[in-house]
């Protein structure tokens, strides 16, 4: 009896979760940074009186 399929599957699931855990925070950080830049541009445009 071989557990090769089980071991390979377990490592694959682990690798998928590890990649997910690595990528999601970076995507959220990039989105937050983009939102901050856009908000700053809107504020600057509002203060200067020109339409954004």
Keywords for this entry:
single chain, 52 residues, mainly alpha, 1 helix
Layout of secondary structure:
Blueprint: H1 4-48
SS strand fraction: under 5%
Average pLDDT taken over every residue: 93
Helical residues, percent? over 70%
Number of alpha- plus pi-helical segments: 1
Low confidence ranges: none
Rg calc: 22 Å
Largest sheet: none
Give the topology string: H per helix, E per strand. Answer: H
Global shape: rod-shaped
Intertermini distance: 68 Å
- Content-based structural category: mainly alpha
Number of E strands: 0
Task: Report on the architecture of this protein.
This protein is mainly α and 52 residues long. 87% of the residues lie in helices and 0% in strands. The relative contact order is 0.07. The model has no long low-confidence stretch (mean pLDDT 93).
């Amino acid at each position: 009896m071989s557990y090769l399929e089980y071991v390979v599957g377990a490592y694959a699931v682990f690798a998928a979760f590890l990649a997910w855990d690595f990528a999601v925070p970076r995507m959220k950080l990039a989105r937050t940074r983009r939102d901050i830049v856009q908000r700053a541009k809107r504020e600057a445009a509002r203060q200067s009186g020109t339409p954004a």
